[in-house]
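Whether sequence alone determines local backbone shape is best considered at the level of individual chains. Part of our work consisted of pairing the sequence of a single chain with a tokenised description of its backbone. This step matters because it turns folding into a mapping between discrete strings. For completeness, the protein is quoted in full, as a sequence line and a line of structure tokens:

_____
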Amino acid sequence: MSNSNLQQLHLLCVQMYKEGKTPSVGILRSKAPFKVSVTDAIEAIKRFNAHKPTLETSTETQPLPQTERKDHSALSARVEALENEVAELKRALKQITPGQ
């Protein structure tokens, strides 16, 4: 899936959230202007949920205290490592799953 398609799906999730709806795979697939696989919809919702707390906070941006910055960078590094692991597992699964 292209990055721009994933961004469009993320924007649809944000739009649904602002309308008071919880993004779901079925709704996301039906509202998307292009064909969306279940796994792509799940990925978009996971990314939306990962960034959802920033949507709930006030629109004013306030700098993080020094301790929270350290925690944030450590968390970001951990998330990136986990995303790499998931990508690797998906590649391995495609190799062992015939016909997909």
